[in-house]
Amino acid sequence: MYLGVALTSLADVSVGFSRFAVDQRTAEVLAKQMERWTLLYTYQPPLPPSFIARGVIAGLGLADAPNRRHCVLQSVERFIIPIEGSSEAGTPGLKRYLRLGEERYEAIVQLAKANGLVTAEEGESRYAGAGKARVYSSIYTQVLRAWDYRCALTGQRFGSVPGLHTGLEVVAIKPLIAGGPMHVRNFIPIAANLSQEWMKGAIAVGGNGELLVAFARLPQSLIGLIAQSNGFGSPVDSRYTPDPELLAWHKAYVLGS
Fold this sequence. Notes:
This protein is α+β, with helices and mostly antiparallel strands and 257 residues long. The protein has 2 domains: 2-126, ph1033 like fold; 131-255, no CATH class. It has 7 helices and 11 strands. It has helices spanning 24-30, 102-115, 120-126, 131-146, 195-200, 220-227, 244-255, and strands at residues 2-6, 19-23, 37-42, 50-62, 68-84, 97-100, 117-119, 168-172, 187-191, 203-205, 211-213. The strands form 3 sheets. Strands 1, 2, 3, 4, 5, 6 and 7 form a 7-stranded mixed beta sheet that branches. A hairpin with a 7-residue loop joins strand 3 and strand 4.
């Protein structure tokens, strides 16, 4: 079981989210999670919570105000794009903290990794605020629908689900951390078991829509899946067709040409 902790006031947070204030009740729960990863989120009803960082609980100390404690984190990582917690909306106690199963925690972290994590220090110059959460959430939903829940690399179709999709990830062609735009034409849906291979550069797209695959770098279990592909797909709605310049950037970045 993992915890998510609400940052009720960003004014209570020190640089990099490494130290923040919580009430006594939340502190008692956090005390049982020492040396474990914990997610941080903002919550502004009626909007769902937005997960913005994670860190390992290193200690709890007294705060200036009565019935308040400071939580100290280490190994803090901020999410370049906050992850919307639609499935957590309405959870009792959300204004303080929430409990997350391992599968849900991993899904949030993997989605965050797909869009970039930064250390606390780097995050001070790159994090653009919770407004991005709503923009990315909109892009996420639009891209999945525009591609009819199909993987852009294999054509495999997945069923539609509310909230975070467990079979598909919406991945940036040019990562935002590298200057990629927050635009629907910079994002494609990729099967969850292939997204890391795309980001690691084992798969790229050629000028004619062909897949350029470094089979030697693929896990054996994925070779057959890619080998059966008919090439890079296209969305049902042409307005969401990936930008050719961004695909060319990705190809040049991972292949050097």
